[in-house]
Request: fold
Amino acid sequence: MADGSPETPAPANLRREEGRGPASRPILRTEGLTMRFGGLTAVNNVSLSVARGEIRAIIGPNGAGKSTFFNCLTGVLRPTSGHIFLNDEDVAGLPPNQISHKGLARSYQITNILPGATVLENVRVAVQSRHHAWNMLRHRYAFPELMDRARAVLDAVGLRSDEDELAANLSHGAQRNLEIGIALATEPELLCLDEPTAGMSVTETLATVELVRRIAKNLTIVIVEHDMEVVMGLANSITVLHYGEVLAEGTPAQIQANPRVQEVYLKT
Reply:
């Protein structure tokens, strides 16, 4: 540990559970998921299944419907029709806070942190949202287990030594990783990452890829990412969207060899 602090127990989402292999029932399924905006169909009849423990990448050209699909999964948008099953429960149309409490967390393309709060406070607030109702009359240190959980998350994302730093003072890459930490603090089973390496330097990108690999040992990840090196190096399987529909699905090798994907997206 960078600051020499004693090791704290990892929160539940950072510990591997028994029986969470790809052979178990899918953690996420969509059936006929459709999202229309007036006469525009942004997502059209998308059906897919994500196994527990896998890293699934969603790729496609600009305008393919990736962000709309993510927003439907996470409750930002209410789909026009279709189903979203999280652990076999249909969550389509539920608001984001309810979907979060059912085990799904996400990061955003634009960093979503509290810049004027410390790194530790950013994560502590997320931990508290899961374990305690907000109470203005009790100081945050009245819940010491919150601080232990928050520090365990910071250990996991490599930011423990920065816990007293204002989030605004972190580098861009560290801010993106803090956002992943905030998502982890809600103890998800499924983590949706929206362009996690956007705007990063090569060094920051490599560090974030290693972080995603590390946390993927303990949960399922669905990732939207434009950097094909990142996608091909991380994903177990890839779904390609084109004009809101599933164009192809398969392993990284299968996607790279798919002539239709090469034509409309990879351009190789």
